[in-house]
Amino acid sequence: MEAVTEGTRERRRAGRGAERSAKAPKAPQPRLPFAPVELATPEQIERIHQASLKVLEEIGIEVLHDGARVILKKEGAIVDEATQRVRFPRALVESKIGLAPKSFILHARNPENNVVIGENAVAFGSVASAPNVADRDGGRRPGNHKDYQNLLRLGQSLDAVHFWGGYPVEPADIHASVRHLDALYDMLTLSDKPIHAYSLGAERNLDAIELVRIARGVDDATLDREPSVFTIINSNSPLRLDIPMMEGIIRMAKRNQPVVLTPFTLAGAMAPVTVAGAIVEQNAEALAGLVFTQSVNPGAPFVYGAFTSNVDMKTGSPAFGTPEQMKSAIIGGQLARRYGVPYRTSNTCAANTIDAQAAYESVFSLWGAIMGGGNLIMHAAGWMEGGLHAGFEKMVIDADLIGMISEFLRPLSFSDDDLAFDAMKEVGPGGHFFGCEHTQSRYRNAFFSPMISDWRNYETWREAGSPTAYDKANRLYKERLAAFTPPPIDDAIRAELDAFVAKRKAEGGAPTDF
């Protein structure tokens, strides 16, 4: 196996550059051309902030990780070891705000797929962590390795998917002790986009960091300077941080890898039923994560995460794409900007199949995320059934939505010729523009062309067999899988990945008693 020297790295980079030069230019990452919506007034945001500080100082957070409590106590937190309750003085919280960067680059194996996280940049990720998977042909089924790999292939083929937010579906037919090794290996070889690591014990975090380092062909010092793998930390709402999550913050923050603290606050269940109360709880838990991350490593990348929605009070089931979720998404963005950190939000729906509910709930979720100034948009493509299954057809449909949003976000730019005076002069009153030179020279790139929408007239549509959006998405995802070619990877890097995975499997992988 070729030793990983600086000369080797330069050859690898040169090879990747030659491969990229033969391809069509990549569309730039979307950016917001306008200021995010501010639903809450500055005075209301300050009231939420002050209420959150009161929760942290007077009620506190239950921190189950012994080492985390030691770190927080050294920083000035008040720790009750008998109850594992940690109270955060206001001065401690305020001292940590402003230490994390406002933005950072999340590095990919292919540098062309690096994404900016923060400021006005927007990045869309695939569905993640679904226990089941579905398509129209095979129906709903438990997550498995084959479908996991195919979802990776599909997401890699879609320009709208910028990063992996976790396993698109859980490959549950691989033993849990080694599942992360096979899953991350697939993610780093079937794709060359930025990835996520689950915080389910130190071993999984450390393995992920090393696999990403190998895949990028860099040394430890470079990886520590260049964020290359992120983790989602979900607080156990209400007001608890468990051992695996805190261990994940420690392992990732120490290596300067991004931590995305996301409370899972469903109003009426794990949070107060009012939007304001749910957001206060969300904010308190996120601030606790910010304080701990910056206590581990001041300046480590941190992303403020929001996942506040509501439940159907008749059934207790989570509801998504609701007005309450949109409000929460927008106010969450205001709070993230108040603390000067990037903002994570999501595209979600509770629909069980590809239907009108799946469409309108996803559109509402996406617009709440965009209007709220979301930077890292999780579950943007493929989320179904409240996250209980990943949909092949839904991933294609959501990619279409993301493409339309990305085109909408493209800044308006035009030349004098685009104002089309000569075209109007040529056509004159009562004519049409189909055949004029101005139209013909531009028609191929004049408009964004959705993959799914069918703009034929009714008669032509009937003659074609009356295809639905579900029909077209089913066909398109199969065509993409059939045409898939894995992104190139250096032979020496693949061999090093193989060796690391084999070694860790021989050692038993990771414990499963977390």
Topology:
Blueprint: H1 6-21, H2 42-59, E1 61-63, H3 66-75, E2 78-80, E3 85-87, H4 90-96, E4 103-106, E5 115-118, E6 123-126, E7 132-135, E8 139-142, H5 145-157, H6 179-189, E9 195-196, H7 202-216, H8 220-225, E10 229-233, E11 240-241, H9 243-254, E12 259-261, E13 266-267, H10 275-296, E14 302-305, E15 309-311, E16 318-319, H11 323-339, E17 343-346, H12 356-371, E18 376-381, E19 383-384, E20 389-391, H13 392-409, H14 421-427, H15 437-440, H16 443-446, H17 458-463, H18 469-483, H19 491-506
Helix pairs in contact: 2-10, 3-10, 4-10, 6-7, 6-19, 7-9, 7-19, 9-10, 10-11, 11-12, 12-13, 13-18
Any overview of this molecule?
With 514 residues, the protein is an alpha/beta fold. The protein is built from 19 helices and 20 strands. It has helices at residues 6-21, 42-59, 66-75, 90-96, 145-157, 179-189, 202-216, 220-225, 243-254, 275-296, 323-339, 356-371, 392-409, 421-427, 437-440, 443-446, 458-463, 469-483, 491-506, and strands at residues 61-63, 78-80, 85-87, 103-106, 115-118, 123-126, 132-135, 139-142, 195-196, 229-233, 240-241, 259-261, 266-267, 302-305, 309-311, 318-319, 343-346, 376-381, 383-384, 389-391. A seven-stranded parallel beta sheet has the order 6-18-17-14-12-10-9. A four-stranded mixed beta sheet has the order 2-3-1-11. Strands 8-7-20-19 form a four-stranded mixed beta sheet. Helix 4 (90-96) packs across helix 10. Mean pLDDT is 93; it is low at 1-22.
Low-confidence sequence ranges: 1-22
Computed over alpha carbons, the radius of gyration is: 24 Å
What's the total helix number?
19
Principal-axis shape: globular
Helix percentage range: 40-55%
Count the E strands.
20
Give the mean pLDDT. 93
What is the assembly state of the chains in this entry? single chain
The computed structural class is: alpha/beta
Distance N to C terminus:
35 Å
